[in-house]
Write a structure and sequence with these properties.
Blueprint: E1 6-13, E2 16-23, H1 39-47, E3 52-61, H2 63-77
Antiparallel strand pairs: 1-2, 1-3
Length: about 100
């Protein structure tokens, strides 16, 4: 039996999506903690925390559904702070200095 407890969420800065993620519902806390695995989110948190908003895009998903939807959202929106599932994950161009 699968658990339908996973979410897909976005981190917005000044209303612009900068990161898409998925996980359990408490996963969104990393973006507003200064302890994210993503150093760019941490930089925003310490610079301008009042303009960071985290929104749940989808909920009630299986882990597999959440991972697939996360990938689709990343490929559609191209958030600046995502690397996986984008052209930026190929070590070429300005994103890899």
């Amino acid at each position: 039996m699968e658990n339908f407890i996973y979410i897909v969420y976005e981190v917005l800065y000044n209303g612009i999506p900068v990161y898409i993620g998925s996980g359990l519902p408490d996963r969104i806390e990393h973006a507003k903690s200064g302890k994210s695995h993503n150093p760019k989110i941490n930089q925003l948190f310490f610079k301008d925390p009042d303009n960071i908003v985290v929104q749940i895009l989808r909920e009630g998903l299986t882990k597999e559904e959440s991972l697939e939807l996360e990938k689709e959202y990343i490929q559609a929106i191209h958030p600046e702070f995502n690397i996986v599932h984008t052209k930026r994950n190929k070590k070429v161009g300005k994103y890899w200095k």
